[in-house]
Amino acid sequence: MAVDLAAVRQALAAQRIETPSWAFGNSGTRFKVFAQPGVPRSPEEKIADAATVHRFTGVTPTVALHIPWDEVDDYRALADHAASLGVGIGAINTNVFQDDDYKLGSVTNPDPGIRRKATDHLLQAVGIMDATGSRDLKLWFADGINYPGQDDLRSRQDRLASALREAYGRLGEHQRILLEYKLFEPAFYATDIPDWGTSYAHCIELGERATVCIDTGHHAPGTNIEFIVAFLLRQKKLGAFDFNSRFYADDDLMAGAADPFQLFRIMNEIVRGGALDPAYGINFMLDQCHNIEMRIPAIIRSVLNIQEATAKALLVDRDALARAQAEGDVLEANAVLMDAYDTDVRPLLAEVRSDLGLDPDPVRAYLRSGYQEKIVADRVGGRQAGWGA
Ligand code: PSV
Ligand code: MN
Ligand code: MN
Fold it and tell me: Where in this chain does the entry annotate a coiled-coil region (predicted)?
């Protein structure tokens, strides 16, 4: 077999996944938020939970913030707090969707005063990146319209482009924009950035430091996400993932839970494109909500699911695959891919973890650690942070 196992081990040890601060907070659906005991009461406690995930997985050294959910007076001090726990601040996510002013849109709103307010929030987020050392400004806009004729589709694109241009112009040399898209919700008739093509076109207009973020839950059912990955990699315009999984819409379930084969196909294109190495610059983030399950072990499980999909992708015998493809041997090409997918990679990952000095079974190690009991006992009272705050 033409697979270099030492290189596979090395790639798995070097893999990096970013956790989202909001996944540690209470969340729910529009029907009910089920509060959990031990939930973080502050951005500092969310970061402590993220650091705990890193302690058990060894591959999650950064945590993404969402502003204003993670608003603090002193962002430099927040970054120092993160560093003292062994993690760094990842992407800064903006929030221009939870304010009455944004009923008809944020940066695309017909009212120039509201557009100014939304754009100022994007600029404020770059200030937070300066203070925390974050590289990535992650933008998702809930903007869109519910009824044909409600607003002018094309003017909204112009307004969007102009806000993006201003934010891009404010970036430092080593900072970049990650532009997320979403098919629908909360807008139902037309979303202003509904798909990768729209995001891609805006990124092209902006320049080199603007790239697309693929949230795996933001497509129509049946969309071939790995094709989008392959296409954007070829164009050097893939900047990030928001990993989660879905059965129906934007379910935000644990990555790989609903469709581990899709996750494998995505990671296969990443490996094929030479984009797994952190030096390539893709930010592999989670964007999940854990409404009914314990959060920290659910986040660890998501990380393990991504690692398993990655390990399988690394085990694809690329020479055998290329040969079968060149010969037009449809069945053999498919069999080569499926051989890798059908491999049980858990023993390999357990070895990689042991080599890194980690427990080979991070979920069980966490549950044994006493951390959960400690946060349940310690975190009483106070304001709960995150969704549903
Ligand atoms: C929107 O559905 C989204 O995927 C964006 O990334 C938001 O910032 C995030 O969810 C909040 O969970
Ligand atoms: Mn997302
Ligand atoms: Mn989403």
Answer: none
CATH number of 14-314: 3.20.20.150
Q: What angle do CA 40, 134, 232 make, to 5 degrees?
A: 105
Is 62 touching ligand 1 by the criterion CB < 6 Å?
no
199-222 as b/e: b if 16+ CB within 10 A: bbebbeebeebbbbbbbbbbbeee
Rounded CA-CA distance 361/353 in Å is 8
Instruction: List all residues 6 or more positions away from 54 whose beta carbon is below 8 Å from its beta carbon.
Output: 19, 60, 61, 86, 87
pTM: 0.97
Q: What residue owns the CA closest to ligand 1's atom 11?
A: 287
H-type alpha helices, the chain: 5-14, 43-57, 75-84, 112-132, 153-170, 196-206, 225-234, 260-272, 295-314, 318-326, 330-341, 346-355, 362-369, 371-378
What pLDDT, in 10s, does the model give residues 217-232?
Answer: 999 999 999 999 999 9
ipTM score for this prediction: 0.99
Q: Ligand 1, residues 26, 97, 183, 215: which to mutate, most atoms within 8 A of Cβ?
A: 215
CA–CA separation, 40 vs 384, rounded Å?
6
Please give the number of the atom of ligand 1 that sits closest to the Cα of 244: 4
The protein residue whose alpha carbon is closest to atom 12 in ligand 1 is 287
- Average pLDDT of the residues in 322-335: 98
Task: Over range 288-297, report the average pLDDT.
Answer: 97
Banded pLDDT at 186 (limits 50, 70, 90): very high
Instruction: Return the ∠ at Cα 92 (arms to 289 and 14), rounded to 5°.
Output: 80
To 5 degrees, how large is the angle CA 267–CA 230–CA 327? 90
Identify the residue whose C-alpha is closest to ligand 1 atom 9.
287
Percent of the chain with pLDDT strictly greater than 90? 96
Tokens of 127: 């200030």
* DSSP codes, 11-29: HHHH---EEEGGGGS--B-
Buried b / exposed e along 45-84 (16+ C-beta atoms within 10 A): bbbbbbbbbbbbbbbbbbbbbbbebbebeebeebbebbee
Ligand nearest to the CA of 241: 2
Minimal-distance CA residue to ligand 1 atom 2: 250
